[in-house]
Write a structure and sequence with these properties.
9 strands; single chain; 2 domains; 2 helices; alpha/beta; 4-stranded mixed beta sheet; 24% helix; 3-stranded mixed beta sheet; Immunoglobulin-like
Length: 123
């Protein structure tokens, strides 16, 4: 009877240890955390202006503006944000299917605004 109790306790301990190991492995923040992509805007340039992503990849655009309020819009991803100078704006997005997608400033920021854009290339 005592050996049966000891055996059950050992089995229970083993199962709890295995469960804890599985939970620790599946709950790792770095495995599921979206990639952060810093994008800086200034008249009339985004840096970087070419962003490679993988299809289905979740990212957070970390946006800053240098001189005037800018807009950051990725129409095909359905995301946009106002970016006031001196602030950091975080904008989550998920890459769609493979292809090239334009991002642009959608707040008029002066003469040259019409060329303020970039490309997200999803592979």
């Amino acid at each position: 009877m005592i050996s049966s109790i000891v055996g059950r306790r050992a089995a229970l301990g083993w199962m709890l240890g295995l469960g804890a190991a599985l939970l620790a492995g599946s709950g790792r923040g770095d495995a599921a955390a979206p990639r952060v992509i810093r994008v800086h805007a200034r008249k009339f340039i985004f840096t970087p202006d070419h962003i490679p992503l993988r299809a289905g990849e979740s990212v957070v655009f970390e946006l800053t503006a240098q001189d005037v309020i800018m807009g950051f819009s990725v129409p095909d991803f359905g995301v946009r944000a106002d970016v006031p100078p001196g602030m950091t704006v975080r904008l989550p997005a998920t890459a769609r299917a493979a292809g090239k997608y334009e991002f642009l400033c959608d707040i008029f920021c002066g003469s040259g605004h019409e060329t303020m854009n970039g490309v997200i290339e999803v592979t």
